[in-house]
Specification:
- By secondary structure, the protein is of the alpha+beta class.
- It has a four-stranded antiparallel beta sheet with strand order 1-2-3-4.
- A hairpin with a 6-residue loop joins strand 2 and strand 3.
- Helix 3 packs across helix 5.
- The model has no long low-confidence stretch (mean pLDDT 82).
């Protein structure tokens, strides 16, 4: 048998998932997006290690400062990456406070330095950070390196972006997965059983869909008790987003079930005495699972924007805990943004993440029809 014939035979005998994987490998944007998302989630997983400072670390000398300038050459000699310390001086004539760099001493940047304590994955105590500032050339201390600048309290925006990604990347993913299974379950019940059950479920979906999202977020967020822990807020926001986002998936699944439930293979399963739930999950859902996975992938960006919007409006995570939405809320003043444009850096990460998920979803959508 020739290689060409064998290749054709392998193609037509391959499973749908195998064909999807083959076609997805040829989609360059989807592969790049998958790599970008992998890097972002890896950064979120090890955020405490990668971030040089903790959430509560601040220095009033650095408040609203632009990204720290990193130098390599000092007095005509290469000494490696270093920064200068900021110092505060008072003009005795005008009594104004001036903050400037002290160039008389440099502070080298080093890898794996000791800093704020944290727990790796919430379990293992450590104080090692990927990089940080060591002692000055003359033995001084107190210099800081803020790669993305500082906020109004003198906190490192780079560290807060990394630590905020733990919320902004996981809440939307978790809520999208919950909405995915909730939508499949309720939509399958609606489409398979029909009648009164279908009518009640569809009216509920219409009521939820008729309420504007922002007032609905406000109403549900108002139910969150004040003064609770960040972990509980995390849980409540996940539930809120899941409650809002399942309706679209349920409608899609219902439509698919209405078109498939009278097919011959479903009727044969009924006559063979197969249980209702086995017919739903074993025979019907797998028939369009590839489409559902694409819908899930495309739904995650909406959840990311939802979490960011809730936190931006003050309905989600609140300081000192942080997320990308909280960081953008801190840059909500037009005047503040005009004078400190570095505060908009978090929006770059939101945009990149949403685009990566959308490009990955496009690749999966193309791959879901492997014979096309």
């Amino acid at each position: 048998m020739s290689k060409k014939v064998k290749s054709k035979e392998d193609y037509y005998l391959a499973s749908q998932w195998t064909l999807m994987a083959r076609k997805l490998k040829k989609h360059m944007l989807a592969k790049i997006s998958l790599l970008v998302l992998a890097i972002l989630y890896f950064g979120a997983l090890l955020a405490d290690v990668l971030a040089p400072y903790g959430l509560d670390t601040f220095d009033s000398l650095y408040k609203d400062t632009a990204p720290t300038k990193i130098h390599c050459i000092y007095d005509g000699e290469f000494v490696g990456p270093y920064v200068f310390k900021r110092v505060k001086t008072i003009d005795k004539k005008t009594f104004t406070v001036n903050v400037s760099e002290d160039t008389s001493e440099y502070y080298k940047l080093s890898l794996f330095v000791h800093g704020d304590e944290y727990k790796i994955l919430g379990l293992i105590k450590s104080d090692i950070h990927l990089f940080g500032v060591t002692e000055g050339s003359n033995g001084g201390t107190g210099a800081k390196v803020y790669l993305f600048g500082a906020d109004a309290l003198g906190r490192d925006i780079y560290s807060r972006v990394l630590l905020g990604s733990q919320i902004s990347l996981t809440i939307p993913f978790a809520s999208a997965v919950i909405s995915f299974f909730l939508g499949i379950t309720i939509g399958s019940i609606s489409g398979y059983f029909g009648g009164v059950t279908d009518m009640i479920i569809q009216r509920i979906i219409e009521v939820i869909g008729a309420v504007p999202q922002i007032p609905l977020w406000m109403a549900l967020s108002a139910a969150i008790p004040a003064g609770i822990s960040t972990v509980k807020i995390y849980l409540y926001i996940t539930i809120i987003l899941s409650f809002i986002n399942w309706t679209g998936m349920a409608r899609i699944v219902r439509g698919k079930f209405l078109s498939l439930k009278n097919e011959d293979y479903v009727m044969a399963a009924r006559l063979a005495g197969v249980s209702t739930w086995k017919i739903i999950w074993k025979h019907l859902v797998p028939g369009f699972m590839s489409y559902l996975i694409v819908s899930l992938t495309l739904g995650i960006p909406g959840s990311i924007v939802g979490e960011t919007s809730m936190s931006y409006l003050g309905l989600g995570i609140k300081s000192p805990a942080t997320s990308w939405g909280v960081l953008l809320q801190e840059a909500s003043s037009v005047t503040d943004v005009a004078t400190n444009p570095h505060k908009l850096i978090p929006i770059i990460f939101v945009t990149i993440t949403v685009l990566a998920y959308n490009f990955l979803g496009d690749g999966l959508r193309d791959a879901a029809d492997p014979y096309k």
